[in-house]
Every structure is written in C-alpha cells, then in structure tokens.
Design brief:
single chain; 498 residues; Nucleotidyltransferase, domain 5; 4 domains; five-stranded mixed sheet; flat
C-alpha cells in the first residue's frame, strides 16, 4: 500500500483548490501535477435499486444493470451514461439488492467544463454519499448506525450507514429551495443571508427579536418536514436492512452546524441520539467540510489502488514511455544512437514511428467503435433471452393446466352418463361461444369449476356463455372476476347441475 501521497481536490462549482497529505489540508492557488479528486453533484446522479437472486452470475450483472437503468430508471436511450453499481446483501431475504448509479456524460462535461480548463485532468470523481466511509477507515469515527445530512446551496442529501457501512441515500431540500419557500411566505432573504441566520441564530428563540419571529416559525416548519422525511427513511431502512436504531446524526451546511439544531432534534423525538456536524478531522477546518471528507475518501482510494464507484471521464493519459508505442520508440532511439548517432537516420525513424502510432490509434478507435456495437447487441440479446424465458414460463403453466385437465377427463371415463352428460352440455356451449377451457374441475355430476379464456375482440362471449348456462337450466352459475392477461380475458366460473 502506498503511503504519504499528496493529492489535490477541486470543488466542481466554485473551483476552489486544495491539497491533502493525510494529515494537513493546504489551500492551492494553482494546480499541481498530483492525483486529482473531485465529486459529482447529487442532482446529476440517477439512483435506482432492484433485487436479484443471490445466485445471479456477476458476468451478466453489468448487462442486467444497464438494461434496468434504461428500461426502468428512465435513462434516455439517445444518450450515453457513466454507470456503476453496488451489491448489498440483505439479512432477511434470499435476494440481493443492487443499487445502481448513472450520470449523463454530457452533464459531466458541462459540470466539469471549467474545472478541466483549470486543471486538465481529474483522476477520481466520487459519488459523495460514499465518501463518509473515510471517517471509519481512518478511525475518526467508530462504526455505528449513523445518518449524514448535507444541506448545501443547490444540493442536499442524506446518507445512511449501518455499522460503518453505506446502505442508502436520499435527496433533501437545499438552501435555495428553502429561500423559495420563505419568499412564498413573504420572507425575503438570500441564500447567503439564510446561511448566516442558520449559523448565528438557528433555532435559538432568544436570539430573534419580535420582527424576525416569523422566519423562526417558518424554519421550524420546514425542518420539521426534513426530520419527518429522515424518520420515514429510517423506518424503511429498518425493515430492509435491519437498521435497529439511530446512534448519531451528523448535520452540516457549507458553513458548519446549525445553531440550536441539537435541541430541535431532541424535541422532535430523536431521543438518545448524538448530534454532531461534519467538522470531524483532528485538525479542525473552517469550511468546505464535505469537500474535505470527499478529498480524504479520494486519498483512501488512491492508497487502496481502487477504482470502484469512480465516475470520472477525465483521466490523464498514461505516461508515453509506459505505453507500448513509447517503449518501442525508446528502444529504437537507444539502438540508433549506439549504432550510428546519425541525426538524419534518427529523425527518419521518429517520423516512421509517428506514422505507426497514427495507424495504431486509428485501429484502436475502430476497435472501440466495434466494441460499442457488440455491447449494444449483447444488451439486445440479453433482453430477448429474458423475454423468451418469461414466455416459456407462461407456456409451461398452460401445458400443466392442459395436462391436469386431460387427466381429469380420463378419470371421467368410468363415471355414469349423468357425469358425462354434464360435461358434454357445458362443452357445447363453450364451442358455441368460441371459448377455450384452460382447466376443468368436476365434482361428480352436480358441480363443476371451469376456467375459460377469450380473445380481446370476443370478450363479450364470456357474459353470453354465463347467460346461456342459466337458460339451459344450470343453477348457481357465478364468477368471481374477469381479468385481462396478455390481451386475453380469463374467468373462473362455478356451475351446478340441477
């Protein structure tokens, strides 16, 4: 494991830049040629969860995730996305939960356009709700059941951690949206002013004069909704992940804690819960608390040589001399210098190699295009296989019903004429109204239960069939429901003979 690396972090919105070596954060005025970390904006991330069997092969999972994200999560098929996912084992379920994350590449380019102009490359772009793992990895926090809530100017989200491991995330109301709510109530403040109010006055009633009492009432109403949502998400996580209780709530704005929030949370009903903010590093920070946490998370990933949940598309190219073309050029240069030292020959070889590199680059681009085509075809075939399996399952059910009905008809051969006559009379009416029997259950010569199926265009034939049964003298003719399944109307009908 690498040690004592120095990395740099850039904020995607404000372009602020600082470095970190695992102990100290240092503000930077210009970029350095170090491993670079940033974070995706929460509003840019599409989050979608679904279950899979624990026996699902990992080889097919990437294709399944991609299909689910396009078909169920609503991704635009005309756009390209950076997709990653996380598999979560459930304590009380034979299925696994897959949480998938997608970001539109055009959105990534727009969000980081100014960043790339300033620093050229970003090696690791983190999904921010994963970054709190660094607090446990570096033993800043002991693993417990924790909720982290970040409320920024234009983004806000909460993250649940069970025993120090991430389990879920949800969006929250941000400061800009709170300002809009206050404006509706004719309380006109800016984001900056609201941020100062939360930091300096918060929920401390004694710090407000009579003129400002209305804003306190509205803030209490808004934050009551916030913690109601947090409580609802906690209840959901209890049922899904066995999340027993909340031990700690970490709540921060960009400027840090909200004054009086601890008392507000306790009065709201979160008893026996420790309330803290994000200023958790041993060397206390002034601001940008979430950025510092994400930066530390990026350093952990570098030390672990891990690229999991990295959504960057701005990686720096490898050093030329570490590539195959670079090694080839270096070998030829050394060889030529040793043999001749003739500059013209050396220049000729360089030009030749550049042409080869251009050809190789062209071939590489062609292979990349072919790979995208194969990937799309694989996705289509996977979808076809899933549809075929679904259809086979339906056909097997129909086959089993027919098999069961044939068996029952064979059992009828030995019964008396009344038994057979009952079935024959019903069968004539089935033929008259072009109905198909999926299953027949006859109890002696007096009672029968039959499940019939009709095409969509002949759906009235089921009603006509019921009326004809009654007209033919059958009694207690009834059906519980007529349901539509795959463009077919299906009804289960009970009949009694006189």
């Amino acid at each position: 494991m690498a040690k004592n690396q120095l990395i740099q972090y850039i904020n995607p919105s404000e372009l602020s830049l600082f470095s970190y070596n695992g102990k100290h954060f240092q503000k930077l005025n210009k970029r350095e040629n170090n491993y670079t970390v940033s974070r995706a904006l929460y509003e840019d991330i599409v989050v979608y969860s679904f279950k899979i069997p624990t026996s699902q092969s990992n080889d097919d999972l990437s294709s399944i995730v991609e299909i689910k994200m396009y078909e169920e999560a609503g991704l635009d098929v005309n756009k390209t996305y950076k997709i990653t996912y996380l598999i979560k084992k459930l304590d009380f379920d034979e299925m696994c939960l897959v949480e998938a994350f997608a970001i539109d590449l055009d959105v990534l380019n727009d969000t980081f356009h100014e960043c790339i102009k300033k620093i050229k490359y970003i090696d690791f772009i983190a999904l921010p709700f994963f970054s709190y793992t660094t607090l446990y990895t570096n033993k800043i926090l002991t693993p417990k059941n924790d909720i982290f809530v970040y409320m920024g100017d234009d983004e806000a989200f909460l993250s649940f951690y069970k025993d120090g491991k991430y389990i879920s995330t949800k969006s929250m109301i941000n400061l800009s949206e709170i300002v809009e709510k206050l404006n509706i109530e004719e309380i006109h403040v800016t984001k900056e002013k609201l941020s100062d109010i939360l930091k300096d006055k918060g929920f401390k009633q004694e710090l407000y004069d009579e003129r400002d009492s209305k804003i306190l009432i509205e803030l209490e109403t808004i934050f009551s909704d916030v913690f109601t949502k947090i409580n609802n998400v906690a209840m959901h996580n209890r049922s899904v992940f066995g999340f027993d209780s909340i031990d700690r709530i970490f709540f921060s704005t960009k400027q840090g804690r909200i004054k009086g929030l601890k008392e507000f949370i306790l009065n709201f009903g979160f008893t026996d819960v420790e309330v803290l903010d994000f200023n958790l590093f041993r060397e206390k920070q002034d601001n940008d608390f979430l950025d510092k946490i994400v930066c530390s998370y990026g350093l952990d990933k570098l030390k672990q040589n891990s690229n999991e949940q990295n959504v960057t598309i701005f990686k720096r190219p490898p050093s030329f001399l570490t590539t195959q073309s670079g090694k080839l050029i270096l070998s030829i240069v050394v060889f030529v210098l040793i043999l001749s030292g003739i500059y013209i020959y050396f220049q000729h070889e360089m030009n030749s190699l550049e042409n080869q590199k251009s050809i190789l680059d062209s071939r590489y681009n062609s292979i990349q295009k072919q790979a995208k085509i194969y990937k799309r075809k694989t996705r289509e075939k996977t979808k076809e296989i899933i549809a075929i399996k679904k259809d086979m399952k339906k056909q097997n059910i129909i086959f089993e019903n027919i098999k069961s009905s044939i068996g029952k008809l064979e059992d009828m051969k030995g019964n008396d004429s009344g038994y057979t006559n009952f079935l024959a009379r019903v069968n004539l009416l089935l033929q008259k109204y072009q109905l198909k029997a999926q299953s027949i259950e006859q109890i002696g010569s007096k009672k029968m239960t039959i499940e019939v199926k009709s095409d969509y265009n002949n759906r009235d034939n089921i009603s006509k069939f019921l009326k004809s049964l009654i007209n033919k003298g059958f009694v207690n003719v009834k059906t519980n429901e007529i349901k539509l399944d795959d463009d077919k109307y299906i009804s289960k009908i009970e009949i009694e003979n006189e």
